[in-house]
Design brief:
Blueprint: H1 3-18, H2 28-52, H3 58-61, E1 73-80, H4 83-86, E2 90-92, E3 94-96, E4 100-102, E5 112-117, E6 121-137, E7 142-152, E8 162-168, E9 179-180, E10 183-186, E11 189-207, E12 217-228, H5 232-238, H6 271-282, H7 289-296, H8 307-316, E13 319-325, H9 329-337, E14 342-348, E15 361-371, E16 377-380, E17 389-393, H10 395-406, E18 409-415
Antiparallel strand pairs: 1-12, 2-5, 3-4, 4-12, 5-11, 6-11, 6-12, 7-8, 7-11, 9-10, 10-11, 13-18, 14-15, 14-18, 15-16, 16-17
């Protein structure tokens, strides 16, 4: 059970018990009992919250990631990043071409706004996990926020539009539910209790600028949709072999940065912005880690490890970036052979990852930059200044920490191009 859910349940019980004190005829002794019980329940709620977090601040690395590796998982990465794709959508007060740009000339709206709603994306299998990401440009006083809706495979019922993130300056002028009867958003990903057969993404673009020429724009919207497929014929059809072209036994030499070199108040909790900064520098965008971290920081959840915001920062700086899922090393090998490093989300318990520079982690981001001749993985791990630069991690140990324990979540960041490999 997530810590916040446990707290909510206990506090609901507190309110129920405390409410009895207003009933007629309640004795002073009973009031004292209610007061004591209330104190105990609140204390228990706090203890459960701490224990559920395993002693790690949730904002440290985006812990409480609900994703795990399961047998027969299928992933589909859907992208809207061309004029042909963007114009398939429903557009209201936006112009859709190679990008989607706010175009609201109504005389009495403030802030100016418009919406872009993707067409229904039929998945071809039942998906229970969805991770969206986006590349947007938001000049000062503009922003974009995103919602997601899924169609239940059993009933055909659509979920409400669930809020899943924003970038820039935004005004939330309508309800922003994050859960419904079949699932809930966990910061940057949506997990369902039962499969969905289709999904839609909606963006709301806003501008507070008095200059109607100052508008936000969208260059890419992506969502990776995942679910178990136990029918072997369908599974085989949906998971063709990945073609690896070129030599994957190589070291891309991504420049190293330790996360501890930055501003000391948050140096220990910025593995994700530090990893993003390393890959940005590899591709020629060399900015201070602290600068990237402050841009990535998620004030809604008090954390630096929001996956979507790391991708949005890379996109803001001109990169093509998206979140993908990796189930084995074949896709990573294809990336490395193509000169593409990958940022991986990992977690592991003591004893599971002896070759790691840390004994355990509830959630951590690292840069995968190559393979040795023996098939082990060359890594930039921001957790250790002394050992993290090009450290060699045993492939089987990394596989458990990445594919099994964390669901194979990875950031793909690269220079802007129209040809997206591994799409």
């Amino acid at each position: 059970m997530r810590a916040d859910a446990a707290v909510c349940k206990l506090l609901t019980r507190v309110r129920h018990v405390a409410g009895t004190r207003y009933n007629a005829g309640v004795s002073e002794r009973k009031l004292l009992w209610v007061s004591i019980l209330t104190t105990v329940l609140v204390a228990a709620a706090l203890v459960i919250a701490l224990l559920s977090e395993g002693g790690v601040h949730r904002h440290a690395f985006g812990v409480n990631n609900p994703l795990h590796g399961r047998p027969n998982m299928v992933d589909r990465l859907v992208m809207f990043d061309t004029a042909a794709r963007f114009t398939q959508a429903q557009s209201d007060h936006v112009s859709s071409g190679a990008t989607v740009v706010l175009n609201d000339d109504r005389p009495k709206t403030f802030p100016r706004y418009g919406t872009w709603t993707s067409p229904v994306i039929e998945l071809g299998f039942g998906a229970t996990e969805f991770i969206p990401s986006w590349n947007v440009t938001t000049p000062p006083d503009t922003g974009v926020w995103f919602t997601i809706s899924t169609r239940d495979a059993r009933s055909g019922e659509w979920s409400p539009w669930l809020y899943i993130g924003q970038w820039g300056r935004t005004l939330f002028d309508e309800p922003r539910p994050v859960d419904f009867k079949y699932g809930a958003v966990d910061i940057d990903n949506l997990v369902l209790d039962r499969p969905a057969s289709a999904v839609k993404i909606r963006a709301k673009l806003q501008s507070f600028s008095l200059d109607k020429g100052v508008n936000p724009s969208i260059r890419r919207v992506a969502v990776v949709c995942s679910g178990q497929v136990n029918d072997k014929t369908l599974y085989d059809a949906l998971t063709p072999p990945i073609e690896i072209t070129g030599d994957w036994h190589r070291d891309l030499g991504v420049p190293y940065r330790p996360q501890g070199d930055g501003y000391k108040s948050f140096a220990g909790v910025i593995c994700s912005p530090t990893s993003t900064s390393m890959v940005l520098q590899y591709f020629g965008v060399n900015l201070p880690t602290d600068e990237n971290a402050l841009a990535i920081y998620d004030p809604e959840h008090d954390m630096f490890g929001n996956w979507g915001r790391n991708i949005a920062r890379a996109g803001e700086l001109g990169m093509d970036a998206w979140i993908d899922r990796f189930r084995n090393f074949d896709k990573l090998k294809a990336c490395i052979a193509n000169g593409q490093p990958v940022i991986a989300n990992i977690r592991f318990e003591p004893g599971e990852f002896p070759s790691n520079v840390q004994p355990k982690t509830a959630g951590h981001l690292i840069v995968l930059r190559g393979f040795t001749k023996d098939g082990d993985v060359i890594v930039n791990d921001p957790a250790s200044r002394a050992k993290g630069n090009g450290v060699i991690y045993k492939a089987d140990e990394l596989a458990k920490a990445w594919f099994d324990n964390s669901g194979g979540v990875g950031y793909v960041i690269r220079p802007h191009t129209q040809d997206v490999a591994l799409k």
